[in-house]
Amino acid sequence: MTDSLYMLSQAASRLRLGIPCVLADECPCLGGSHRVFKIVFEDSVQWAARVSNDPDNWKAELRAVRQFQHIKKQRPKIKAPDLFVEEEYPVVYSEWVSGKPLAIWNSRIPLLKRQRLLDDLAEFLLQLWTTPVPSTFAQEKSCFYSTWLTESLDRGLRRTLRGTARWGNAINYLIMRSMIPDYTAEYDEYSGIGFAHGDLNAYNIIKSDDFHLTGVVDWDWISVAPLPAIIHHP
């Protein structure tokens, strides 16, 4: 364990051209699929080292990083930390985002603070949704929402029938599938595609004490989908 933690700081140092760094003297943040360690460099710059609990997911994580790096290149002011990787070492590094996770969203938060964060989130989402998708990340330049939704439901249905699904009921999938033509009719005229964060929950939205958005983290589930599938509230 000690050796692997030492490697975390060594890889981070290489990614910053040899600037020495150490792991912060604090416990890592623990999520359902990752551990996040804080790294402090000699020049006081702070990074996060995100380590997956399943190393077999590295190929998918690496693809997500490449997609995010494209977004960041196209939208450099988007409120999300830069990501850094060494392809042969399965750890995703990022700038450390100041602030705290939103965690809770309800009417007990003063209206002015809620409006402030919503304004920042709206700007973030507009930048994300309008980022052009290159052909390297999408097999097709357009896709009907009905087609995409049918394929998505069918994947869940197949997992259920094979007994590999963590949730789901075959009858419910078939009922939802039968509703697709009526549900998607008005949306199929919008055939463009865009990027979706994929997991925009309250713990991945980081805000300051005065409720300004400081960053959106955890881009593992980033995906490309038709515009009607990605444009929705967080």
From TrEMBL:
Domain Aminoglycoside phosphotransferase: 31-224
PANTHER family noted in UniProt: AMINOGLYCOSIDE PHOSPHOTRANSFERASE-RELATED-RELATED
Name of the featured protein: Aminoglycoside phosphotransferase domain-containing protein
Domain of life: Eukaryota
InterPro entries given in the database record: AGP_Transferase, Aminoglycoside_PTrfase, Kinase-like_dom_sf
